[in-house]
Amino acid sequence: MKKLLLVLTIFAFPAFAEEPESPRDIGEINTAFKLIGPSHKIVVTAFEDPKISGVTCYIARPRTGGIKGGLGLAEDPSIASVSCAQTGAVKYRKPISFDEEGEEVFDESRSFIFKSLDINRMYDKGNGSLVYMVRTSRIIEGSPDTSISVVAPVTWNGVEAEKPPVKKK
Predict the structure, then answer these.
(1) pLDDT, tens digit, for every residue of 97-154?
(2) Taking Cα atoms as reference points, which of 49, 39, 41 lies closest to residue 19?
């Protein structure tokens, strides 16, 4: 029985290792003290691209404090920045979109119902780069404030960066 468990563990582990990590807050800096409720702050979160291993993105965005912020009812400001980096050998878990709008790789609610922060990945076929763009959107009107980051995959510890698989129609 122990041998069977060992064999199952050895063969099952790589499947689990390929799954991207959940987004995780890695730090925050207070920007304004609030007497009641949490302070206003800038929060930095890291996440892996859900379809591409070896790419990690970092988002910095404000989080509103005070009573409304503490209760989750505040509307956070419509600003954010993103920076992505190659953090390992680039391997495609699934085919990616080649559409002009790209595809969403991160989504976060910025208010109780009406606003969200989205990060889209686009692929620059001309040079094989991955372009990540952050934006906020509202039901009625979004924000023109954006930020982009580009990852140009390179060989990592002797492992060549993969080319993206072509999506079957």
Answers:
(1) 888 889 999 988 766 667 788 999 999 999 999 999 998 877 666 667 789 999 999 9
(2) 49
Q: Is position 131 within any domain?
A: yes
CA distances to 12, 41, 44, 76 from 37, rounded to whole Å, are 45, 12, 20, 15
C-alpha 57/C-alpha 106 separation (Å) is 10
Q: How many domains does the chain have?
A: 1
> Considering the entire predicted model, what is its pTM?
0.78
Which residues make beta-bridge pairs with 82? 59
